[in-house]
Structure formats: C-alpha cells, structure tokens
Amino acid sequence: MTHPTETPTRNSQVVNLLDRMPPAQRDALEKAARAQVQDSSPAGIADASTGTVKLSAEVDGQDLPVVEQIDETTRRRLRLHLPAALVSREVWQHRRAVVTHAAGYHASRSHLYAGRLIKLSAMGLRSELASAASYLLVSEYGEMIAEARVEAKRKGHADHSDVAQLRAERRTVGRARRRENLTVLSATGVTSYVAAVVAIAEVWGMALATPALLPVVGVMYACGLREVRRRSEPYVIFDQAAADEDAPLTDSTINAALRKIKVLGEEEIAELIGPIRAVTINACEATLKLPSGVTAPRVIAAREALAEALNVEPSWLDVRQAGHPNRITLWIATSDPFAETRVSPLVEAPERQDVWGRGIPIGFNRRGETIYLKLKHVMALLGGMSRTGKGMLLRSIICGLGLDPRVNIRLAAGAKPGEHIGYSRVCATFFGRRPGRLDLLLDALLMEANRREEFLEDEGRAKLGERDLAQFPLEILIIDEGQEYTQNSGPLSADIVAKIERLAGFAAALNIVVFLVTQDPDKNTVPRKFKSNSAVRIATKTGSPTQTNAILKEGATGNGLRAHEIPFERKGQTIVDIDGAEGELMRSYFIEDEEHDGAEPIITAGRELREQCGRAPGQFADPIEDYLLLATGLSSSGGGPGGRGKPGRPEVTAEEATVLDVILGAFPSGADRVPLEAVRTELADWDQQWAPRPEEEAAAYAGRIGKALGDALDKELEGTGVTLEPTRWREDSGRVRGYLKSDVEEAYEAARKIQK
Ligand SMILES: Nc1ncnc2c1ncn2[C@@H]1O[C@H](COP(=O)(O)OP(=O)(O)OP(=O)(O)O)[C@@H](O)[C@H]1O
C-alpha cells in the first residue's frame, strides 16, 4: 500500500505519518495494506515495497489501492473507563478456563464426594443416636454405680446401700427424662416424619419421597460436621480444584509453589497485581508483588524448581522482573510452547528488512514472541549436531539478509553447496567446497577492512555506523559447514583459521561480520579467538556439555543453558545468546525445505528489491569479487555464472556453460593439473546428472562418468581435430589420473574457434 505524498520543496522533510499512529492502529493498517496488495498481485504475495513511503512524482499515473480505516475510538471510549478486570477479553478467558476446569474437576470426583458425605453423615447419626440413648438411659449413673460396687466389694460386701440408692436415683431421673416435653415431641416428630415419608413413597413412589428425605441428609451432615469438630480431626469432603496438576493458574497455586521452594516463608504472600490473563491458547500470565525482602532475581534464579513445584517443564515457565525488583510477571503454559512449528513471517510478508536496526526474525521464544537477530558490529557463531536445524536457521537468516539491500552476502559452503543454490541470486559471493577460494576471500575482506579503517582514520571516527552503509555495505561472510574449512582443508586450515581470527579481532566495527556455522562444535572447529570475539552465539542441539560450552559462554551449562538437553526430535529448538535475548530458549521459524522450496518467493522478492536499488550481484562495484576474479580468473558473484556455487569465467553464462568450462573451472588457482576425482566433484556441483546415484558403487560411478565425459568432450570438440584425454602422473600418494591445464586450454581454444 502506498500513500502518495507531495514532492517536497527545498529544506522540507518527508514525515512518515505511520510513525505517529498508535501501535494497534498501525498494525491494523499494515495488515489491511498487505492483504490489499496480496489480493491484487498475480502471485498472491505482498511485494517488497509494502509500507514504503513514496512521493507523488514516483507514483504518477499508477492506480493505487486505497485502504479504509474505521475510527474505533468512539466505540471503545466507554471500555477505556472500565477497569481491565471487567472488560479485558484475556482476563475473562482465564476466568472461564478456571471455572470450566473446576466444574469438570468436581464433576469427575462427585462419586468420591458422595462417599465422603455418607461417611460424615453416618458418623453424625451414630454419635447423635448414642448421645440420645445415653441421655434417656441415664448412662452417667452406670459409672457411679460401678464405682460404688467396687467400694462395697473392697469393704467385704457388708454394705450395698450406696449401690441401691444410685440405682433408684437412675430410675427416677430416667423416668423424668423420658417424660420431658422435648423427648416426647422429638419422638412424635420423628415417627410422624417417618410415617409421612413412607406414606408419600407408597402413594407417589420413591421419586417424590427422595426430596422429602433431604432435610434428614442436611441434619445428618450438620451432626457429622459437629462431631468432626468435636474430635478436632481434619476431614475434607471437596478437593481443591486449583491444586490439580493441570489446573489453570491461580494466586493460591503460585503462593503454594513459592512456599514449597522456600522462596517465600510460611506466612509470606505474593500478591496478584491485577487479574491473571490468558495470553495464548495454552498459556496465561500473572503479575505479582513480592513481599519485602524477596526480589525478582531470586525468583528468576529458582525458575527450574518453581516449574517443578507448578508441575510443568522448565521450558513452559517464564519469570521476568516487572519493572520494580519486587515485582515479577510469571508466564506459564499448560502444554509445550515449542510443540508447534511456526512458519517464518517472511513467507507471508517478504518485505524489506532492517538487519541493522530491528534485526531478522529468526524464531519465537516460549511466550511466542518473535526473536530478532541484529548483525551489527558482531561476529556470529552457530553450532550443533547434524540434522538439528542449523540449515533451517540459516535459511531464515539468508532470506532476511537478502531482503536488506544494504547487505553484501558472501556465502562459502564447506559441503553440500546444492542446499544453498536457491540463495545465489542475492549473494554477492557464493561458492562451495573451495578452501583456496575461501582463503582468498578472507584476504580480500582483510584488505577491505584496512580500506575501511583508513577511511575512519581520515574521518577521525572509531567505527562505521548505519549512515555509512551506502558507502560501505554490511559485509556478511557466512561460512557454512565451517568444520570442513577449519579442520579438513589440509595445510590451508591453519591459514583460514588465522585469517578468521584476525578479522574477528578488529573488523566488527568496520561493518564486516563473519558468521561461522559448524557441526559438532569443539576447540578444533571453533577458533578460540573467534569464539571470544563473537557476541552472537546460537546453539541447536549439541552432543555434550563440552560442545554446548564451545558455542555458548564459558560455563554456560552451569547457568542453565543446556543445549545438549534439547530433545533431538524437537528440530529447530535453539538457545540464543544475542542482543535482546540473552541465553534464551527459542524455536527457529520454519521455511519449507522438503516438499517445495518455500524460500524461493522470498529470494525473488529480495532479488527484485536489490535490482530496484542497483544492489543485485553484478550490479554494483564489488572490490571483493574483483580481487577474487583477478586472482583466479573466475567469478563467484551470484554463485558464479551458473548460479550454482561454482566459480566460472564471468563471460560464460549458465546456459552457455559447457563441460570444457567446468573442467577448466576445476583447476585450483595456480595449479597446472587436476585429478579426475576433482573434475567429477565439479561436474556433480554443476549438474545433478553428473552426481553419484543413490547406492551407486564408487567404481560404477567412475566408469559411468568416464564414459559420459568422453562422449560429451567428443561432441564439444567435433570438427576441431583436437581430442582431450586424461593423463597419468605420479604423486606421493601413487599414480593419479587427470587433466593437464595446457591440454584443456588447447581444447577450449579449439572449441571456441569453431563456435565463432
Ligand atoms: N524450526 C523448525 N521447525 C520444524 N522443522 C524443522 C525446523 N528446523 C529444522 N527442521 C527440520 O529438521 C530437519 C533437519 O534440519 P536441517 O537440515 O536444518 O539440520 P542441519 O543441522 O542443518 O543438518 P546438517 O548439519 O546435517 O546439514 C529438516 O528436515 C528440517 O525441515
């Protein structure tokens, strides 16, 4: 949605009125604008310019959609004056949950309650009958008579007068009691009542007699209660619904849990500030004032024990300080907040991103809030075991970076470059599995860092800022499967590690970021100095506490950051230690990667945005690619001429590339020969038909490719009179088969001439 604005006169300024709207109204307008553009765009997605202010001159003659906003303030005015406890939908939602839970809880226990009521009533009836009988039979005289008899026996049966006298007295008192008005009335009442109930039952049946029995039940219950109190025995008929395992949160549950973990003393109370609110389908939030002497950090430190006391997993509970150190907000879920996969917002809205200021949306925390990754003046590290979601996280990051044209993405894949081919259209540099080229790329970045430093020196400044991005774009070098370069590149590994560490030491403030992604992180795969300089640390599931410590802060596992305890089946669950989310558990956003390429529309939007700004690969002066081209004669801008992560001669486009181009591209810089094995890898990277088939034996694969290569070369060299055959030479490891560069260059020239 575009708002036409008058072209500004000199010294005037364009003001974005959206910035002045209340957040709710702005969100509604943004949503409506996006829906409008989605409806009117052929692909059904909002374009990258949604939300961009344009001047009237820029949109002259265009048919712009109009989004109407209804002013809801008047309708809401009354609501504004009522307390939140009465009008808040979330509060009522929580209350409904409490009542519904209590009703279900008590209904399921009704048989227990009936049993306890009958027991209590029987106890009451028994005790009342016993005391009535004791009254009417004057049983208190029984003891006195027994004592008189013992006394008489002691005196040798000489005198029985006391016993006789007491018996006579008992008879007189008993007679008097049985003639008392109350006794007579009670007996008459009870017999009349029983007769009436029997008569009702006989005439109208038991159904009508039952309500007539209710007073008896009530009286018996009251008698039972009196008896229980007299005995001072605890007797509970109705259980507490709030104490149930899956009961919605109430203040009594919270207080009981805080007392159980000894954060509160027996007499202390944490008071609710405002009502408890339902915040998502499965979670609610309460704000509490703690008693004096108990602070929020103390409760936060005891989070895990509190979770246990509240019968939930630690990841289902979040405790934060609510401004004052004596106040906390407590957020609790009734089921795993990470159970559900969430699709990246970039899929729905592939719009311009602000990597510098706001960051890239990479995932959501337990509260469902979006976590943004800012790549400003930092070095970044991402590690974890294989198949734990590193690639997916990188997917969100590269898509986000692609949508900010101020960023130059340099992607060096240590393995599986095929996984990244889709990103090549927004990558200033992209290549796979080439330690030599990465070494050169690091040299180029070090030179660029020096150039930027000289600029700062001239300017008298210490670091580059956002306003310098037009002149010095944010250079982000992503090294995926970094272990292949830092550990498995033979003699080059040491050079690569040393250069990464050097860059990490001083380039962050120069808008140069190294983002190292590594499998099975440890001391060998993560260079020590790089780690100590990285302010962005992200761990997917790791294999051990040592691996967790290799990514997150030293002693991270002791601080509760236990990436090795993340369940393997919860793909994408991650611990991030980044600006704005220190040591926070999150789950990465999902962008479809198996059924279809869900990143494709985002990368297309990023490419279009970059083309509009003249910032697509190849469109701008790029000293780093220039350096690589000069050193190797090959370009990897936009993933090389084929866009497949294979550097090639810049003059050859993907459609024009031939097998000869691929063989020529397989020679490492400065080498005069290349083994057949390297040629096969190069061909497989270029086109899937050259890759090994599933379960194909190495020998069968070599035979198939040897034949196909021979045929393809014959075809390309047809009519030239030149043939190209592999040669054998001796190396330390034994005899090697491959091509000599002079032979390939001769064949290449011959083929070129005939094509002309
Ligand atoms: N946040 C997520 N939500 C849902 N599924 C995910 C998420 N992250 C990853 N997955 C799924 O988990 C699987 C493995 O993810 P991914 O390929 O990113 O792992 P990886 O760590 O990069 O593995 P490797 O190191 O072997 O390349 C994929 O099938 C992916 O679809």
From TrEMBL:
| Gene Ontology MF, one | DNA binding
* Ranges of residues in domain FtsK: 368-549
What are the UniProt keywords, alphabetically?
ATP-binding, Membrane, Nucleotide-binding, Transmembrane, Transmembrane helix
Tell me which InterPro entries the record gives.
FtsK_dom (IPR002543), P-loop_NTPase (IPR027417)
Which SUPFAM superfamilies does this entry report, sorted A to Z? P-loop containing nucleoside triphosphate hydrolases (SSF52540)
Looking at the UniProt entry, the stretches that span the membrane are 181-201
Task: Write the protein's name.
Answer: FtsK domain-containing protein
Name its species.
Streptomyces bauhiniae
Q: Which classification does the entry list for the species? A: Bacteria, Bacillati, Actinomycetota, Actinomycetes, Kitasatosporales
